[in-house]
Structure formats: C-alpha cells, structure tokens
Design a protein that fits this description.
Rossmann fold, single chain, 6-stranded parallel sheet, binds carba-nicotinamide-adenine-dinucleotide, NAD-dependent protein deacetylase, 3-stranded antiparallel sheet, 332 residues
Length: 332
C-alpha cells in the first residue's frame, strides 16, 4: 500500500461504513479541465490579466468596475464560458459518490458548472458564487436568456438589456454582491450534520465560503486536498484532520481505487472528455466528425412520423445547430 493510500484509507473506511461526504470545492478542482484558477502563481488568472489592462486584478470581477467597463469581464468570459470544458476526474468522483448514495452536498465556489455536467443532481449542488446559467441587467434587473447573451458575445457585443440598455451580467457573484439566499439557507441546515468534509482546490480566501470548514461539527472528519495548506487547516488544524497536499485528480483516482470504483471513474471521465472537450489533435477531430456522421445516419434511419414532425424541432434547425457546434470545435 502506498503512502497516499494509507493517508486516504480512513476516508474510504468512513464512506464504506455509510458516512456521507460534503464537498467544499474551489477553482483547483477544474484546473485540469483547462480552466485557470485565480491564485496559482504562474498559471492563475490573476497572474495573466495584463492583457486586460485592469487597475487591480480583482477588478475583472468587481461590480462597480463592471458598471463602468464590462469589456475585461467579457473578454475573460468568452474564454471561460461553459461548454467546451469537460468534467475532471474529481468531478466524476463526486458523481460516483452520488450514485452509491455517499453524497450529502456539494458547496462550490466554481462558476464553471462542471459538477452539473458530470451529472451531479441539482438537489446536491449549492453554487455559492452563482453560475453562468442565468443572466440579469445590472440596472433594471430584467432577465436575459442565455442564447441571446451568447449571441451578443459571439458577435463581439457587450450584452445589453433589451428594455433599458443597461449592461447584462451572468448571475455569477461579483465582489460587492451578496451570495445567493439558498447558500445561507442550505448551510444553516447542513452545518451541524456534516460527516465527512472534503475541502478541495481552494485557497479559502473568499468569505464567507472560506469559513465553512471551520463551522463543521467537531465529530466531522475534515480532509483538505490542495496544493498548499490553507485556511482553518493551516491556522487551526484539528487532530483528526487529513491534509493531502497533492493534485485533486490523483487523489480522486486513489480514493476511488480504495473504494473499488476506479474503473467506473475512468470510464465516466473518458466519456465526459469526448462529449465536451475541443479536439486537440487531428485524430480527435476526425473521431468527432465520424461520430457526427454516425449519429446523422442514425437520425436518417429514424425519420419522424408526421405527428412527431409537428412537435419536434425542425431537422434542418437541429443539423444547423450541430454544425455550428462542430465549427466551434474546429476553432482550435
Ligand atoms: P483560488 O484562490 O485560485 O485557489 C485555488 C487553489 O487551488 C490554490 O490554493 C491552488 O494551490 C489550488 N490548486 C490549483 N490547482 C490544483 C490542483 N490541480 N490540485 C489541487 N489543488 C490545486 O480559487 P478559489 O476557488 O479558492 O477562489 C474562489 C474564487 C475563484 C471563486 O469566486 C470562483 O468563482 C473563482 N474561480 C472559479 C473558477 C471556476 O469556476 N473554475 C475559475 C477561476 C476562479
């Protein structure tokens, strides 16, 4: 048994005994999907924002700054927008724990929706810092649907409100904004009942989220999976804490190995990768096109009946949509 396995064994044992896991996730669980975190010294967003000409790094997510100049946010958003990133092994581990009834809740600071894309159900997820799923005008608060927002972004326009012309912003929480009410409501119910707390890929610097691990009951088993010691694990460690300074995906592999679900993890991960990732090589591209042609051939075999034709979207529309997706993928 490797050193890592023996460090992780108590977690696997607790899960096998029926204890449930509550996750506290940060940007570090998504870096292997290709989404930079904020604070990693060389690869993080804050280290690479020079091109946006910001007065200070956090300005890109600052509400007052956005109201004056939304361009830097939208430049960044066009790079980070969900759709072309696949869930990581860590996300898929969460899904597997859900499937075996070992998941209690997922508190995430991430706005990339990768937990959802991995198949974690809505009832388990608390997106503490919001997500790109909905959008509102910062002036009159009218909602803008995501297709309209994406169309504006694609055509290099700052999405603006069709009623008052104010700037529209996806409902991710900026500095200067409050967290969703659901976050506080769910946490007030959950905090005393956490059995296993896995804190992963976060610098634990953004409040109030950063407080959560310190608020779990003394009987809870707390685990930090991160590249560095952070927050309560650094300043007020508990005797039973497990601290693993390592890569999130590697730890997901190891823990799933100890739980006997490593094959399932690899299978889910490969499936997710082929569904969401941009092709990186010619071979992957050819594979994507072959898959598309296969599914088109299947569609042709199952020509809809007249009755169905009235209710289902037009085939040409669907084909155009699929083709647009493919063209997006080709932009590598
Ligand atoms: P952060 O402050 O950038 O910290 C990330 C932490 O993860 C650091 O301590 C890193 O050392 C660690 N880390 C990075 N990669 C790995 C890895 N592969 N394995 C283990 N540890 C790793 O990010 P936080 O989430 O703590 O900060 C909160 C902000 C970041 C939230 O408001 C988010 O909205 C925001 N954010 C989200 C995303 C996303 O949705 N993917 C991306 C960038 C920023």
């Amino acid at each position: 048994m490797s050193d890592l396995d023996s460090i992780l064994q108590p977690i696997a044992d607790a899960i096998k005994k029926g204890k449930k896991v509550t996750f506290f996730n940060g940007a570090g669980i998504s870096t292997s999907a290709g989404i930079p975190d904020f604070r990693s010294p060389e690869s993080g967003l804050y280290a690479n924002l020079a091109k946006l000409n910001l007065p200070f790094a956090e300005a890109v997510f600052d509400l007052d700054f956005f109201m004056e100049n939304p361009q830097p946010f939208y430049t960044l958003a066009s790079e980070l927008y969900p759709g072309s990133f696949a869930p990581t092994k860590f996300h898929q581990m969460i899904k597997l724990l859900q499937d075996q009834n070992s998941l209690s809740r997922v508190y995430t600071q991430n706005i990339d929706t990768l937990e959802r894309l991995a198949g974690v159900e809505d009832k388990y997820i608390v997106e503490a810092h919001g997500s790109f799923a909905t959008n509102h005008c910062v002036q009159c608060h009218s909602e803008m649907d995501t297709e309209t927002l994406k169309k504006d972004m694609k055509e290099n326009r700052i999405p603006s409100c069709r009623s008052c012309e104010g700037y529209v912003k996806p409902d991710i929480v900026f500095f200067g904004e409050g967290l969703p009410k659901s976050f506080f409501k769910t946490w007030s119910k959950d905090s005393k009942h956490v059995e296993i707390a896995i804190v992963a890929g976060t610098s634990l610097t953004v409040q109030p989220f950063a407080f959560l691990p310190s608020e779990v009951g003394k009987k809870a088993l707390r685990i930090l999976i991160n590249k560095e010691k952070v927050g309560d694990f650094k300043h007020h460690p508990r005797k039973s804490d497990i601290i693993v300074l390592n890569d999130c995906d590697l730890i997901a592999e190891k823990l799933c190995g100890l739980l006997g679900i490593e094959d399932k993890l690899n299978e889910l991960y490969e499936k997710g990768k082929s569904k969401y990732s941009k092709p990186e090589t010619k071979e992957e591209l050819v594979h994507d096109i072959e898959e598309k042609l296969k599914s088109e051939a299947n569609l042709k075999q199952k020509e809809p009946s007249e009755e169905q034709e009235e209710t289902t979207p037009k085939k040409e529309d669907k084909e155009e949509e699929e083709l647009t997706d493919l063209v997006d993928k080709l932009k590598i």
